[in-house]
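Our consortium's second objective concerns turning raw sequence data into structural hypotheses that experimental partners can test. To show how far this objective has progressed, the report includes one record in full. It was chosen at random from the queue rather than selected for favorable results. The single chain below, 115 residues long, was entered without modification.
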Amino acid sequence: MTTDERRALAAALQALADAKAEDPVLLDLTGLTTMTDYFLVAHGTNARQVHAMSRRVEEALREGCGLKPHHVEGAGPSQWILMDYGFVILHLFLEEKRGYYNLERIWMDAPRVTL
């Protein structure tokens, strides 16, 4: 992990904390897939909160790190927002959708990262 990546991940985690995201988990996918190096997964209790989480992350990474997402999906219904920054893909869910898709189980071989 580069210093810039560490700084961006820390900024994203802080933005999620500021938006009161629940149970953020950072998974290290290095060596497990070529699509990205990390998944950052978190959930909110309602659609408004999930939207706020995505806005805060986007703002923090743009203003603090000069990063823009390559792609964002799911901003409409807000049951699952995916934000692709290349080296990290954020998955922001409603609580019940996170449990249903259970990315942590699918990627159980991925180590959890603590910054």
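The partners drew two points from this record. The helical segments are 3-18, 47-65, 95-101, 103-106. The chain has a mean pLDDT of 94. Both points have been shared with the crystallography group to help prioritize constructs.
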